[in-house]
Amino acid sequence: MLIIRNLASQLRNRLKKSPAIAILGPRQVGKTTLAKELSNDYIYLDMENPRDVAKLQDAYTFLESLQDHTVIIDEVQLLPTLFSLLRPLIDAKRTPGRFILLGSASPELVKGVSETLAGRISYNELCPIGLTELPDTIGFEQHWFRGGFPESLLSENDLLSKEWIDDFIVSYVERDLAKMFGVDLAPTLLRNFWSMLAHLNGNLFNGESFARSLGVSAPTVNRYLDFLEGGFLIRRLQPWFVNAKKRLIKSPKTYIRDTGILHRLLNIPRYSDLFGHPGVGASWEGYVVEQIYQIKEKQTDLFFYRTQTGAECDLILVQGITTLACIEIKLSNAPTISKGFINCIKDLEPKYRYIITPKSETYVTANDITVTNIKHFLLDILPQIQ
């Protein structure tokens, strides 16, 4: 099944203007498929293929000989010296669309990537398939339960989806993550850490508590969290600090970004079992946060807000220092408004305030809070308020 990615048209426009673009995102998310659709005349090099790596023994000469083609370099983080080598190649001939770099790791965490190719490259993140990208044949429930990785989402049944995610988790823990960043990671520790993060999905992150449970130091825990985040698997949602007069919570919240992976780590076998699990509320909250992140404008930042006196907001949309919107995320389609959310609105005085549910009708409460469903918010509201 062909799914048209929202990022595709943006990448085509950038490829017409920039000599190089980078498509970043987790493994198996569809980066290679998308990259090959962007050009009719490309040379493909995979840095996990020894034959392709061998071609780059004299990388400058080889790549210079391909200057009339688009060169796609996959898993570029495995050969970080390429980043600095591309600079003179691009400067020698600044033709748009010369290079498409694909990476499964955040460049900031890859050893040796000090040259960012500023002014020469456009960085773009490809996330798992989002709710706004789904064809009519795939329902919201399937997407929330299976997540957005193509092989999982498009599987013939839940069993095949489960098997794919299980293999994905094992390969990431045992091989991929350490290889991507060029570091030694303990697979058992990483798997236990990832499982703990899943069971505490959406909670405040306490590195000391994790360290005690895992029997390691807090710096080790933070380093592992950096790598999971750098592999586009974990999201750290930071607290909003604008109100200095309040005693604010200052620890970030952590989420497993893909709910399909989250549900496997929680061992939830079917969608119907999701609602009997204590983690269902946090799963829904993380799902909404991730869907908004995927289509928000670049100038819009995401935070949460919580004071020690009880004011709380699941998600805040911020532009600069302006609080654009306060959002409470509710699993119930007939939500009640919490006192903590009302106090948050009083503290921050946002331009807009919303409660987002799975499927409720859209209406405005007496408190001037708009209750709406996730799909309507993503398609109709978010584009209008940014």
TrEMBL record:
<keyword id="KW-0547">Nucleotide-binding</keyword>
<dbReference type="Pfam" id="PF13635">
    <property type="entry name" value="DUF4143"/>
</dbReference>
<dbReference type="InterPro" id="IPR003593">
    <property type="entry name" value="AAA+_ATPase"/>
</dbReference>
<protein>
    <submittedName>
        <fullName>ATP-binding protein</fullName>
    </submittedName>
</protein>
<dbReference type="InterPro" id="IPR041682">
    <property type="entry name" value="AAA_14"/>
</dbReference>
<dbReference type="Pfam" id="PF13173">
    <property type="entry name" value="AAA_14"/>
</dbReference>
<dbReference type="GO" id="GO:0005524">
    <property type="term" value="F:ATP binding"/>
</dbReference>
<dbReference type="InterPro" id="IPR025420">
    <property type="entry name" value="DUF4143"/>
</dbReference>
<dbReference type="InterPro" id="IPR027417">
    <property type="entry name" value="P-loop_NTPase"/>
</dbReference>
<feature type="domain" description="AAA+ ATPase">
    <location>
        <begin position="17"/>
        <end position="115"/>
    </location>
</feature>
<keyword id="KW-0067">ATP-binding</keyword>
